[in-house]
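Run log // design_07
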């Protein structure tokens, strides 16, 4: 089967085909279209970059996207751009050997040609081996998942890996279908979820600058629920770790540096000492 790889920068006209593919590959109750419009088009750091793979009939059978993110707060090496890796989708009916490897590598070549780039990602149990073995990502370790009593916030010590500004924080709290709340005094932002019919408050981030959170003009919750925190970057206090058997899937923090390979080790050490939270990746 012939394969046509087409790089793209997200536009409203391109989204319907991508939505159709993701709906086929990852069916879910929550519709894909509003999330992709928010993610791919409204991101203040720029539209998503992607590669689409088409078969000989012109049907979209593969898709891989990189979402621009804020830069590292304290980059240890020169990095021109930082991206979140997401939405790796291959139509299982296509049965094209090496489809996703060819698709992702094509996007990596394009991004690397624009300067050194850091790719961050969160993988589940199914995708982890593919990212590490086939796509040459390096693993930083498993994200910690903790539950906290109603009204209690996690306490962490590590500084955030990514810088935070008001426009990024405002966008992050405006995801369709998600109600966000703020605690400006403690620099925290939460989002109300339903898990198995039970309301939970996911802690997107804590320890942010109070003036940033205050500027969001988000309400305080009318009532508190148990709180869920996912993150990387050292111990998390004031909570109970969620055992593996109670998780939908373990989440692994991975990265790849498209640049001088001599800098990979230094970046790994830097990222391992910094916090990476719900605020930084696409789960909530």
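design_07 sequence
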């Amino acid at each position: 089967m012939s394969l046509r790889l087409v790089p793209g920068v997200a536009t409203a006209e391109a989204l319907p085909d991508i939505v159709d593919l993701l709906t086929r590959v990852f069916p879910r109750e929550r519709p894909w279209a509003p999330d992709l419009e928010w993610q791919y088009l409204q991101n203040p750091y720029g539209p998503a970059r992607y590669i689409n793979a088409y078969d000989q009939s012109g049907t979209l059978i593969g898709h891989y996207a990189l979402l621009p993110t804020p830069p590292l707060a304290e980059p240890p090496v020169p990095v021109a751009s930082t991206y979140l890796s997401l939405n790796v989708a291959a139509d299982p009916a296509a049965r094209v050997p090496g489809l996703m490897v060819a698709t992702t590598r094509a996007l990596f070549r394009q991004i690397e040609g624009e300067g050194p780039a850091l790719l961050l990602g969160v993988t589940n149990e199914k995708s982890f081996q593919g990212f590490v073995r086939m796509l040459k990502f390096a693993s930083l370790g498993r994200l910690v998942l903790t539950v906290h009593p109603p009204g209690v916030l996690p306490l962490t010590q590590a500084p955030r890996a990514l810088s935070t500004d008001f426009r990024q924080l405002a966008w992050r709290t405006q995801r369709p279908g998600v109600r966000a709340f703020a605690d400006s005094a403690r620099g925290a932002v939460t989002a109300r979820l339903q898990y198995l019919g039970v309301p939970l408050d996911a802690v997107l981030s804590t320890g942010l600058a109070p003036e940033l959170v205050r500027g969001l003009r988000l309400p305080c919750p009318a009532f508190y629920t148990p709180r869920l925190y996912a993150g990387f970057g050292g111990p998390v206090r004031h909570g109970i770790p969620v055992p593996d058997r109670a998780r939908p899937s373990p989440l692994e923090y991975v990265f790849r540096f498209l640049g001088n390979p001599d800098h990979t080790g230094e970046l790994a050490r830097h990222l391992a000492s910094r916090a990476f939270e719900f605020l930084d990746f696409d789960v909530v």
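The radius of gyration is 19 Å.
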